[in-house]
Amino acid sequence: MKFFFIFATTILVTMHAVVGLRIIPYLNLNNTLKIISWGFVVVLGILPIIPMILRSRGYEEEFVDWFSWAGYISLGFFALTFMAVITKDLIYLFLGFAAKYSSIFGYTPEPSDPQRREFIQKMLSIGIITTTSASTLTGLYNARKGPTIMKTNVPINNLHKDMEGLKIAQISDLHVGPTIKKGYVESVVNKVNELNPDLIAITGDMVDGSVDYLAKHVEPLKDLSANIGKFFVTGNHEYYSGVDQWLDKTDQLGFTNLLDSHEIIRRGNGIISLGGVTDYRSKTIKPSHKSDAHLAFRNVSKETPKILLAHQPWSIFNAHDAGADLQLSGHTHGGQFWPFIYAVRLANPYTAGLHNHNGTWIYVNRGTGYWGPPMRLGVESEITLVTLEKKKDQNNLIS
Fold first, then answer.
1. Which domains does the chain have, with CATH numbers?
2. 341 with 379: CB under 8 angstroms?
3. What pLDDT, on a 0 to 100 scale, did the predictor assign at position 104?
4. Which letter does DSSP use for residue 255 in this model?
């Protein structure tokens, strides 16, 4: 935790310093306004740190959540502004490099006008602030309007005809905590129930906080209704928030906790095995919770279709080895907001949507809530509705 705090603080200081140094000098402000602007940057840089410190020391109160709102919105704005400033500087660097060596190709650029260059820099700085402010507000609206229903059909080997059309509603990365509370959860519950699913699966990161503080905010989840059952697997954030207490709470809310275990689901004469594993890295916090898909499907016959609930997409390799037909995951938030989607793609084998991993399907939910900055740009939050269908015979496809 101490290392994370130092790392996060270093990133925040760097990001705010770069934005200040690359924006404020070009606005042609007088000394008083420059001092006020730098003070504003310093205050906004501190805002995300305050709730981080208070929550790490066990302070979970409404006033801390207000600091979280302010700090996370500020963080989102500065993250976007930092990326815009870096992009602008890279373009200027490229243009300067091109101008310096343009004589090689027989072109001699005209001498630049300092006043014109100063005016352009000022307009660019104002444009960046205006654009990132508008983007922050747009991202806030997108995050708070709630999840979209994403529907997908997945062909499953050996699926009995009585299991065709089985509907699984997936919630992932709800992150009930400082900025997502009971009202948001109730809207999610209503949207899921309208789908009339056979199964409901929460694939981790349901919360960001303790049971004592957040119990009343997750209480609406008890009203989730499924024809067959509701299931839960842990994400990394459950381990930061007291995993044993949260597993007791999800049990009270009517969920079956799948901890490297499975349940046989029956409909008519058809069966599937619904397995679940603990978070991919859970053993670093709770060694007895080592994630193991083989253990989850122990004693399940090879002919029985296997569906695995696993928070992180990285579990797909273990899931494939264990013979899973489909893995439902989350964790990535689909990148949550541009341009960080590219970094998320580099850090995960799959980022969003449905993919075929060497014969094992994996669907990655983009997150039903959000984490950190209440922002979504270019990536919608989602509730996933997965419908199982019988895999078509390859000979029929050829004919």
1. 2-142 (no CATH), 147-392 (3.60.21.10)
2. yes
3. 63
4. P
Q: What is the mean pLDDT of residues 49-76?
A: 88
Sheet containing strand 360-364, edge to edge, reads 261-267, 270-276, 306-309, 326-329, 360-364, 353-357
Pairing of strands 229-233, 256-257: parallel
CA-angle at 379, arms to 87 and 309, nearest 5°: 130
Q: How far apart are CA 83 and CA 11, in angstroms?
A: 13
Q: Which of 315, 324, 330 is nearest to 365 (CA)?
A: 330
pTM: 0.90
Cβ atoms of 226 and 169 closer than 8 Å: yes
Q: Are strands 326-329 and 270-276 parallel, antiparallel or unpaired?
A: unpaired
3-state secondary structure of 76: helix
For residue 319, what are its two tokens?
């899931």
Contact 212/338 with Cβ under 8 angstroms? no
pLDDT band at 16 (very low <50, low <70, confident <90, very high): very high
How far does Cα 174 stand from its chain's mean position?
9
- Residues 92-120 have pLDDT tens digits of 788 777 666 665 655 655 666 677 777 88
Residue carrying structure tokens 């709770």: 286
Cα–Cα distance measured from residue 202 to residue 310, given in angstroms and rounded to the nearest whole number: 10
| d(C-alpha 121, C-alpha 334), whole Å | 34
- CA 351, 206, 185, 208 dihedral sign is negative
Q: Lowest mean pLDDT: which of 57-66, 161-170, 320-329, 376-385?
A: 57-66
Q: Taking each helix axis from N to C terminus, what angle separates 2-23 and 62-100, rounded to the nearest 10 degrees? A: 50
Q: How far is CA 116 from CA 25, 112, 126, in A?
A: 16, 8, 15
Q: Give me 108's structure tokens.
A: 């001699």
Handedness of CA 140, 213, 175, 75 (dihedral sign): positive
Residue recorded with tokens 């014109």: 116
At 226 the pLDDT is 97
Q: Which two tokens stand for residue 229?
A: 């059952």
